[in-house]
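Task: sequence design from structure.
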């Protein structure tokens, strides 16, 4: 007596249109979070994405899930920018410059406050995305230091703070009104990072990633 082979469990893949809708929602949410913060109504996100409210809730059961997806997607794009900069530029400092400008375009600084204010900052997805970005940024900087092009008294935290500060609009100004200045000021900053810049010594000490995670770092 032969026994019938066990049935293979079918794995259902999301349809292409469902994936496109999800991507549109994440893109719209990122734009509106940058413009108005994490409290923007989900109805506005649905409208910007061109989908119905039910589609938003079907993909993201609550605001925390959507914010986390947006932050992780921005970190993933930032990590890819670092990988691309390393792969496509033989000149180590040029790779650093390319990464800094690409990271500023992601407006990651506008999303960072959400990590601590709206959901668990130790969520596995967020931790994995953060560690990948940190490792790749460190690789970009170490390569420039090894080439003698980047001053040795700066660390990853220094770089990320300045990217954040220079790509965040001053209070009272519209987000888009300073876009034309961001890359100009970032280039001025990058020129100051060159190993043979005018300042022989910087005040204070290099900012580490642990310094940035310390709740008392702002004091």
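Answer:
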């Amino acid at each position: 007596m032969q026994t019938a082979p066990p049935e293979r469990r079918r794995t259902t893949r999301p349809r292409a249109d469902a994936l496109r809708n999800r991507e549109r929602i994440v893109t719209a949410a990122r734009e509106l979070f940058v413009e108005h913060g994490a409290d923007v109504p989900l109805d506005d996100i649905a409208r910007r994405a061109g989908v119905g409210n039910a589609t938003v809730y079907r993909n993201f059961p609550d605001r925390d899930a959507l914010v986390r997806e947006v932050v992780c997607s921005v970190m993933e794009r930032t990590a890819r920018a670092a990988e691309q900069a390393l792969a496509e530029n033989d000149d180590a400092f040029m790779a650093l410059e390319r990464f800094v400008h690409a990271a500023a375009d992601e407006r990651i600084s506008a999303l960072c406050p959400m990590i601590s204010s709206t959901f668990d900052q130790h969520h596995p997805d967020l931790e994995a995305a953060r560690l990948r970005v940190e490792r790749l940024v460190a690789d970009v900087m170490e390569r420039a230091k090894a080439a003698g092009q980047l001053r040795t008294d700066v660390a990853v935290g220094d770089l990320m703070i300045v990217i954040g500060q220079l790509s965040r609009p001053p209070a009272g100004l519209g987000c888009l009104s300073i876009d034309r200045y961001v890359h100009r000021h970032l280039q001025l900053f990058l020129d100051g990072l060159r190993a043979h810049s005018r300042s022989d010594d910087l005040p204070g000490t290099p900012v580490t990633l642990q310094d940035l995670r310390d709740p008392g770092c702002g004091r």
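The domain at 15-61 is CATH 1.10.10.60 (Arc Repressor Mutant, subunit A).
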